[in-house]
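Thread: Newbie trying to understand structure tokens

Hi all, I'm a second-year student working on a class project, and my supervisor (Dr. K.) asked me to get a predicted structure for one chain before our next meeting. I've only ever worked with sequences, so writing a 3D structure as a token string is new to me. If someone could post the tokens and maybe explain what I'm looking at, I'd be very grateful. Here's the chain:
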Amino acid sequence: MRQFFASVMMGLMSLSVADVAQAQNTPLRLEITDGVIEPLPVAVPNFIPDSPEATELAVEIARLVAADLTGTGLFREIPSSAFISQISSFDTPVKYADWKAINAQALITGGVSVSGDRLTVRFRGHDVFAEGELGEGLQFNGTTAGWRRMAHKVADAIYSRITGETGYFDSRVVYVSESGDKANRRKRLAVMDYDGANVQYLTNSASIVLAPRFSPTGDRVLYTSYESGFPQIHVLDIGKVQRRILSADDGIMSFAPRFAPDGRTVVYSQSQGGNTDLYRMDIASGQRNRLTSAPSIETAPSYSPDGSQIVFESDRSGSQQLYVMGANGGDARRISFGKGRYGTPVWSPRGDLVAFTKQSNGRFHIGVMRTDGSEERLLTSSFLDEGPTWSPNGRVIMFTRHTQGANGRATLYSVDITGRNLKPVRTPDGASDPAWSPLQ
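---
Reply by user tm_fold:
Sure, no problem. This is what the structure looks like when written as tokens:
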């Protein structure tokens, strides 16, 4: 049985995935590169319940799996009204000819069992044109209350088998929830599923909070708080909703923190005596080391995935630009050379790209470049886009978009690194400063 992958290619190629699959009897691997010719047609019939109690969840789980996949822009769901075959049992053999007839190239089938508050989801992915399964069927166990996470796990597994990449659906995003008018804007930390569901508020709106950042294990969040009247770094345990102050020196402003990949170290900006430099802190001991000492503003640091380097923004050249240095400090090399100002750099989880905010010709952009500054690409353009964060697999970027006007609302958006599939992420209130978690 051949392995099956989705097609996402850029250029003038005219063959569809189906044409290629039928034209050759060899394993098909088509790489995701720069853009989408045509989304892959996929059929997701409602999953089969083992009892009346499981009926509603079986439908909801299948719908969420389909929404996860189609939300990437890489897949197109075939409507159930076009189905010739109906899946009546999880173990019934698939009539591949009926799915070929409606041009489904992938088929996802599943079964759902409920016992009390326990939930079991079984599923299979099928390569319709090869008439075989996409690997072995899998089973996930959990609770009925956690059915959304179960569905995300199914979608991640299917996405991975079809594209060859890890998924990102079973992840969360921490952000700043904003409410009230512009003159009386209230801000508090919130965390949600990657798609905007299951919002949980982590702080109240008694003080301003900024720039939350997940730990590598996803159980803690760093952020900047103005509770004391000037910026200090706090760390919050999400599960216990408990927090403590990491930087508490009187009169010293500390902000823009980010975890090192080991989760034990924090890099951040500290402003003292009119100068802002980067520091590193051991969380357990509180020991600090100064990493920069230039007479300029150094901020927004972000580690490379291996922890060996830090990318940051600085105005040492006379304008806001991006620099890379070793994790222990030392000489820094400039990597941004286009026209305009660059800020908020974030290293990709893959290690190959840096995402950034760019201001040029009165517009703001989210862009990416290689870690040496080459191959810069701007993915968005608007009145104000800022603050990118990477999905766990490095395929998607989420960011803040501010609308123009006296009471401009901040909204979260996401975009594929090809610049396609730009879309809003729905939240109950205004939202800014997103930070994506690792896979749960």
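A couple of things are worth pointing out once you decode it. The chain has a mean pLDDT of 89. The first helix runs from residue 17 to 23. Feel free to ask follow-ups in this thread.
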